[in-house]
Amino acid sequence: MTLLKFIRNIRLRQKLLLSYVIVIFLPTIVLGLYAYQSSKSSLNSQFQQSADNEAKKLALEISYRLQRQDVSMKSIVFHPALIDLMSNPNQDLYTQFKTLNDKIEPIFFNLMYMVGDMTEIMLYSENRQSELGNFITPSSAVKDKDWYLATKGSESTKWWFEDGELFATRVIHNIDLQIVSAELYVRFDYNKIFGDFIGKMNEGKGIIITDQQNRPVLTEQVEQMDDVQLQSLSRSGTSKAKLGGESYLVINKDIPQTDWILHYLVSDNQYNTGIRNILSATGIIVLICMVFLSIIIYLFSETLLRGIEKLNTKMKMVEDGDLTVVVSTNSKDEIGQLTDRFGSMLKQINQLITEVYQTKVTQKSAELKALQAQINPHFLYNSLSLINSKALRIDAQEISDLVNHLSSYYRTTLNKGKQIIAIQDEWTNVQAYIHIQLAMHNTRFDVEFDADDKVFQFEMIHLILQPIVENAIMHGIDLLREGRGKLILRASLDGEDIVFVVEDNGVGMEPYMIARILEHESSGYGIKNVQERLQLLFGSEYGIIIHSQLGIGTSVIVRIPQYRHIREEDS
Predict the structure, then answer these.
(1) pLDDT band at 373, cuts 50/70/90?
(2) Is-contact 487 472, C-beta < 8 A?
(3) φ and ψ of 555, to 5 deg
(4) Which string of DSSP letters, residue by residue, matches 375-395?
(5) What residues form the membrane-spanning segments (predicted)?
(6) What whole-number distance in Å separates Cα of residue 88 and Cα of residue 79?
(7) Using 50, 70 and 90 to split pLDDT, how confident is the model at 386?
(8) What is the C-alpha to C-alpha distance for residues 451 and 310, in angstroms, rounded to an integer?
């Protein structure tokens, strides 16, 4: 009790000095051992993580190279002329040769010339008994090949490496009958695909790529493995292997889009070298700490006490309600960091107070604008309804019709603030707009509507057709000097897409004008805005195409996918 009382009553400075002296050696040694074990564990984790990341990058790089070739193969198997030729072997021979020479062989020669990695392209037809041209032969020639049955039962590209040849295969479907009509065989230059990997691996690292039967596709920077060693390689996760008396960490990764496995090998010597370096560094650091720790303890004690006293004073001021006090220090130790963080916390509290106030003001403003947005359309519809009622009372049918068209136009245009609208409503919107324009033009042009009712079960982006129709009237029909203008609107299904066509017999445009309206903003709600909205939602393959001839007229084609917004959200 006397010792405890003595320790409790001595000053803080003396307590610190005494505690530092007592525990200086033991904690230093313990911390040194702990640092060594932690560093060793961390190095092991980093070693495996680094190897895993490198293996993943290699697998993705190989997959990317193969996917580039897969894009070229897809351009072949989905080519309409090729599908038609493979699906109709009973066409007359002249038609087949003409299709082959005019539409198919030029594609093959261009791919082999432009891609460069392709060395052979061959189509094996299921329906033919004889060869046709340079690229088509009966599938009976390869029915005994391993790849034939595997390809025929797959919907994706299959990659193979046999007898030193790298090639890929893919089926071609008969679209009408949903059966396989042919198999595409493409052979590639092995060195152009894998040339960057050959001879480029760092010392102590290597790669092995194997197929489904664990046969080697590529072996680099490691000794050749016999069949027993290849079969022992794992096809997933992490494993160990011993080659040529050296131990390796093996990272196994699937190569996407293929049935191949990448085995990434890293020598254990790299890990052991790192461990030795950590042990040496830890011993030196512990020795330096034990020598100099006694010298700096006194300095630490002084700065610690001074910082605590200063921080205590500032905290007392904040406790008394002064949140504007500035708390900072030039010290970088824990007390200095604690002081700076306390000061930073005070700044953040003041900022939060200001932000909460500003957020409340902004929220009230947004609520007011939302209320106005709800009131204005309601007021507009009531006003139009009143005008219609008064027109009917005085038997002004034309005024009534015009008001009804205007009401319908604004109802679908506003669309309750939503960006997605039923195609039926968009069609109603543009019809109402055209009827209004007819009234404004004293019916000086004719209008023709032609819509397939099947398109009305789908949805689209709001306000797409009206800007196009407006341009057709203002910049096409209105500028006619002779004859009567005509506007035609069509809507139809085209495969999995929906196509809208707006035609006019106006003055037409020159090519530079077409590019200009698609690439530059115009006054009001222009075509460029429509194009950007379509491609933002549906992708660059959809949007607007314009055909025009001076003095003949203009045709604007809008292509969108068959889209159902509500169903996609629910899924």
Answers:
(1) very low
(2) yes
(3) -125, 120
(4) HHHHHHHHHHHHHHHHHHHTT
(5) 16-36, 278-300
(6) 14
(7) low
(8) 81
What is the secondary structure of 322-375 as a DSSP string?
-TT-----S--SHHHHHHHHHHHHHHHHHHHHHHHHHHHHHHHHHHHHHHHHHH
* Secondary structure letter of residue 136 according to DSSP: E
pTM: 0.43
Q: How many residues does the chain have?
A: 571
Percent of residues, the chain, with pLDDT higher than 90:
15
The whole-angstrom separation of Cα 370 and Cα 232 is 68
Edge-to-edge strands, sheet with 216-220: 216-220, 205-210, 261-267, 246-254, 237-243
Q: Which residues contact 128 (CB under 8 A, 6 or more apart)?
A: 89, 136, 137, 138
3-state secondary structure 514-529: HHHHHHCCCCCCCHHH
- Nearest residue to 74 (alpha-carbon basis) of 127, 16, 125, 115: 115
Q: How many of the other CB atoms lie within 10 Å of CB of 366?
A: 10
Q: For the chain, what percent of residues have pLDDT higher than 70?
A: 77
In 390-542, where do the E strands start and end?
420-422, 445-451, 459-461, 485-494, 497-504
Q: How far apart are CA 369 and CA 366, in angstroms?
A: 5
Backbone dihedral angles phi then psi of residue 387, each to the nearest 5 degrees: -65, -40
DSSP state of 532: H
Asked if 349 and 323 count as a contact pair (C-beta separation under 8 A), the reply is yes
Distance from C-alpha of 26 to C-alpha of 290, rounded to nearest angstrom: 10
Question: For the purposes of burial, counting CB atoms within 10 Å of the CB of 495, is it exposed (0-12), middle (13-18) or buried (19 or more)?
Answer: exposed
Q: What is the C-alpha R_g of the chain? A: 39
Q: Using 50, 70 and 90 to split pLDDT, how confident is the model at 326?
A: confident
Question: Is residue 140 a contact partner of residue 183, using CB atoms and an 8 Å limit?
Answer: no
Please tell me whether residue 128 adopts helix, strand or coil conformation.
coil
Average pLDDT along the chain: 78
Contacts of 43 (CB under 8 A, 6+ apart): 271, 274, 275, 278
**pLDDT of 50 above 90:** no
What integer pLDDT is reported at residue 427 of this predicted model? Answer: 93
Confidence of residue 379 (pLDDT cuts 50, 70, 90): very low
Non-local CB neighbours of 149 within 8 Å, separated by 6+ positions: none
The answer to whether 353 and 325 are in contact (CB under 8 A) is: no
CA distance 292 to 462: 75
Cβ count near 128 (within 10 Å):
19
At a CB cut-off of 8 Å and minimum separation 6, what does 528 contact? 517, 518, 519, 520, 521, 522
Instruction: Tell me 154's DSSP state.
Output: -
Q: In which element (H, E) is residue 417 found? A: none
